[in-house]
Structures are given as structure tokens and as C-alpha cells.
Amino acid sequence: MNKQLIECVPNISEGRDLNKINTIANIVKTVEGVKLLDVDPGKATNRTVITFVGEPKNVIEAAFRLIKKASELIDMSKQTGEHPRFGATDVCPLVPIANITMEETTKYAHQLGKRVGDELGISGYFYENAATSDNRKNLATVRSGEYEGLKEKLSNSNWKPDFGPTEFNERIKNSGVTAISARDFLIAYNVNLNSTSTRRANAIAFDIRENGRTKLVNGRQIVDKNGDPERIPGKLKAVKGIGWFIEEYGIAQISYNLTNISITSMHEAFYETALAATKRGLRVTGSELVGLVPLKAMLDAADFYLKKQERSLGISESEKIKIAIKSLGLDDLKPFNPQERIIEYVMNSDTNKKLIDFTVKDFADETASESMAPGGGSIAAYVGALGVSLGTMVANLSAHKPGWDAKWNYFSDWAIKGQQYKNDLLFLVDEDTNAFNKIIDGFRLPKTNPEEIEIRKQAIENATKYATEIPFKIMETAHNSIEVMIEMMKNGLQNSLSDGGVGVLCAKTAVTGAYFNVRINAKDIKDSAFAEEIVAKAEAIYQKTIVLENEMMQIINENI
Asked: Strands (DSSP E) along 111-250, which ranges?
């Protein structure tokens, strides 16, 4: 149900000509569903870092168009700059953001490379997680020799490109080559201290960063047999860090690069820094996030601190974001606006308003209007969401009951289940209306010739099937959600028995209402086997729900 999102961070070899930079960056806006997040040019380096995000296929299309446009506007035979480079689009990393694995992201990187080679005639290499061999994982190794060494590099059998032409030609002379990768998300993250001492900030940075500090004996640096300084490793992996003084705020900070947040998260870096600071007589006052952050990083931070406090994790997303901001002190130096700093929220800022974003009054007004949607399916899903919300409330109240401290984790687990059911049903509120609109779209298709008539007929059939599958999913989800209410009625706060009972009744209403929708939509499906099967499965869920409703009534009658 949740969208897959990847971020793309191409670095182009132009940082001075703003017209060229903007023309190249803005090409990504021509792809629907892609959000251009940042354009960061550097004059001395003659390089610009561009950041955009979206669903994988859309991002790959946008990246392809950007690489094409960069190759048209940047002539590498005339390009100079401080930064190492070997192509107009020098590097193009893909970063998994939400609901997508690194393995899946790597496949998209390979797809992009193949298109660049086949359709644009630009050669290149895969690096980091997309690398085709171990000796190509490191970007510095892949880019060694830079643009000036390309002719010799391409003639070396050990450096045959992973995609595109294998010989230096006029095309490569102008465009150079491109390195494409799949890599983890990097967070630039600063931790604030109640100090002005850069030296003290550095000491903490050395405690934490993976590279640690150089080993000293009697004030003298110790070197190994190769003459390299010996080092004492720091506490956390995949972390780079240094201390500095920020004139603007009048404080010292530890500036971290968290190069792989699946190894060391933002909240782990903050927590360990606070411990190290305390040992050195300092105090962490908050932190500062540079750029944007994935939603998961914020939710993970909230869960970390909720566990520390032995509080239920089954609370709303918005509450978790508040807890993450306060726990990490992200508003210490200036206000932190989640809508502007969390990638998924930025992505959704331009989308049309959903039904679930309406106020309760506006939702009721919209339902009561002369529009045919939202209809019974959407209302059923919403009632189901309210029902399981009551069950989740009982779980959270039970987790906080004095004397039940040993059971907070048990109730937290049930609250988490309830939140997931709630989120699934809220998604279905809008999806039921979307499914209905697909049927309307089908009926609006032209029918001026036999071919158009057949296309229209098939579109209506497919849309009707989908409009039957969605209320079936509402039935299934609402029925399953009853487990939360029943469990809480048996083992949760007994003063909230009535709340659990109302929750079951709401779920039963959701199941029944969605059942009506399955039946009324299925009658218009031409595929009789499909229609008969889904109605039979719906009938079974409806009957099982009646059994659960009776179980609820028995609990109520025995205990009230």
C-alpha cells in the first residue's frame, strides 16, 4: 500500500553557469511524480549536486533525461575544476528512501546504466552496491585517472566499461563517462554542546567517529611498520566527525556525516554523543539536521526513546514525530518543520487533498453532498479505522496503568498492531473512492469504432474488478482488526470494556458495509468465475465476523 521512494543525487561537472545548471536540473520536473529537492552549485569545484526523489521508475526516467541534457550542455574536453571528475554527469547514485530494499535499488541502477549506454552512447561504471566486482566498489578507484586518463583507461581490458561503448570516441570525448551506484542514505547531522571549545568538541568527535583518534604515547604519535599513524577506533561505525565552533549560534558543535544510517542511526549518534559529553563534563543541548531526512529515521528515533521510557510504541505517526524532535532537540537552534524536512512529507506536499485529510465536519459535508463519492465503501473503511482506534486506545491506556509496568511491552505490541490496521483502513478510505473513479474514467473512454469499444469494455471490466477487490480488502482488514479489541477486552483495562465493545461494533459495521459493496459491484463483472469466488470469500468473512461480534457480546454481558 505504501509507495516505494528512491532519491537520486547526480553530480554534474558544471558549477558556474547558472543557466546550464538550471536547465539540466529542471529537466527532472518534466517527469510526473518526481520532486526536485535541491540544487547546490560550487564555483571552485565547478560541480553541482542535484537532489530529487520519487517512485523508482519515475526517478530512473528523470535521471536518464538529466544525463542526456548534461551531455548536451557540458563539453568535458573544455571543463576544468577542483573536484575529481570524469564525466558531464560525473556520478549518479540512487538511494533507497522508503519501502524499497538496497537489492531492488541496485536493479534500478543497472537498468539506468543500460539505458544510458544503449540509448545515449555514454559509457560508464557501476560502483558501491551496484558494482559488478569488488575492485569497482570504491568511487575513487573507479574514477582514478579522471577525464584526462579516459583514453588510456578504456583501452585497458581491466577497465572495460560496465555499459556503453568500450572505446574512446568523439561522443565520450565530449560527454566523458558516468558512474552509477546504489548507496545508503547519508545524513549530515550536527550535535550542539553547552560549550564554546572546539578542542572539547573534537575530543568527543574522536570518541564517537569510526576513525577514532591517533594513538599517542608521551605526547608522541605512534606509527605502524608502514609509517602510518596507529589509531584508536571510535565507538560507532559508518560515522565521520569533527568539532567546530559556530559563530552564528555562539556554540561548539560536533559535525557528523552518518554514511550508512542502517549501521549507525541518527538517534544512536545523538545518544552516544550525549554519554561521551557527560563523561567529559559537558552537556548536549540539542542537534541540527542539515538537509532532509527519511521518515523512517525519525520514527526509529521516536521508538528508541519510547522504549527507553517504557512507553507504548503504538501511538500515531504525528505524535512520534513530536517525540523525535524533542528527544533529539532538533528545535534547539531554530524551529524544525517536519513538512519541510522529512522527505516523504515534502513529496506529498503538492498532491491533492485526500479524504482522510479532511476535518470530521468537512468529511461529513463531502459525503452528504450531491457527489457520488465518497460512498459506502469509503465510509465503511473509515468506521473500521475508528473501531480499531478504540482498541488501540485501550492498549495504550493499559500500557500506562500503574502496577502493570511489567506488561507495557505486551500492550505496546498490541497497540502497534492496532496502528497498522488503522493505517491500512485509512488508506482504503481514499482507495475505495479512487476505485470508483476508475470505473467512471472507463465509461468516459471513446467508443467510435470497434477497437475503441473493446478497449473501453476491458477498461470498465478491470476497473469494476478493482472496485470489488477494494471493499473486499476493507472487509478482510476490519475483520482481522477485531483481534485487537477482543484481546484488550479480555486482558486490558476492564474500565474500558465498553470502548472495546464499540470498537467491535464499528468493525462489524465496516465488514457489513463493505460486504454490500462487494456484492453490488460483483454483479456487474462479466467474468463470472471471478465474481462468484470473491462473493463466496466475502460471505465467509461476514459470517466469521458475526461469530466475533457474539463473542464480544458475551464478554460484555459477563463483565458489565
From this structure: 124-128, 178-182, 187-193, 213-214, 216-217, 220-221, 231-232, 239-246
Is residue 1 scored above 60 in pLDDT? no
CA pair distance 268, 266, nearest whole angstrom: 6
C-alpha distance across the termini of the chain, in Å = 39
Q: Which of 62, 49, 52, 60 is nearest to 8 (CA)?
A: 52
CA 89/CA 101 separation, integer angstroms: 25
Do residues 472 and 514 touch, judged by C-beta distance below 8 A? yes
Report the C-alpha gap between 479 and 8 in whole angstroms: 40
CB crowding 266-290: b at 16 or more within 10 Å, else e: bbbbbbbbbebbeeeebebbbbbbe
Q: What is the pLDDT of residue 352?
A: 66
List the one residue out of 384, 358, 392 whose CA is nearest residue 474.
384
d(CA 347, CA 357): 16
- Residues facing 40 on adjacent strands: 49
The answer to whether residues 264 and 236 touch, using CB atoms and an 8 Å cutoff, is yes
CA distance 558 to 560: 6
Please write the tens of the pLDDT for every residue from 275-324: 999 999 999 999 998 778 999 999 999 999 999 999 999 999 999 999 99
- The per-type count for the chain, helices as H runs and strands as E runs, is 18, 15
Q: Please list the helix, strand and coil fractions of the chain in percent, rounded to the nearest 5, in that order.
A: 55, 15, 30
DSSP assignment of 259-320, as one string? S-TTTS-HHHHHHHHHHHHHHTT--EEEEEEES-B-HHHHHHHHHHHHHHTT--S-S-HHHH
> Which element (helix H / strand E) includes 556?
helix 528-559
* Separation between Cα atoms, residue 466 and residue 475, nearest integer Å: 14
What is the C-alpha to C-alpha distance for residues 363 and 357, in angstroms, rounded to an integer? Answer: 9
Q: Is the pLDDT of residue 447 over 70?
A: yes
CA 165 to CA 5: how far, in whole Å?
Answer: 31
Does residue 140 contact residue 90 with C-beta atoms inside 8 Å?
A: no
Q: List, in sequence order, every beta strand (DSSP E) within 65-119.
A: 89-98
d(CA 40, CA 36): 12
Domains of the chain: 5-182 (3.30.990.10), 187-348 (3.30.70.670), 355-559 (1.20.120.680)
Q: Which residues form the catalytic set? A: 83, 432
Taking each helix axis from N to C terminus, what angle separates 266-279 and 198-208, rounded to the nearest 10 degrees? Answer: 120
pLDDT in tens, 139-183: 889 999 999 999 999 999 999 999 999 999 999 999 999 999 999
pTM of the model: 0.80
- The candidate with the shortest Cα–Cα distance to 514, out of 549, 551, 483, 545, is 545
Q: Give the CA dihedral 387, 388, 389, 394, nearest 10 degrees.
A: 110
Contact 86, 32 (CB under 8 A): no
Q: Residue 414, CB half-sphere, CA atoms under 13 Å: how many?
A: 27
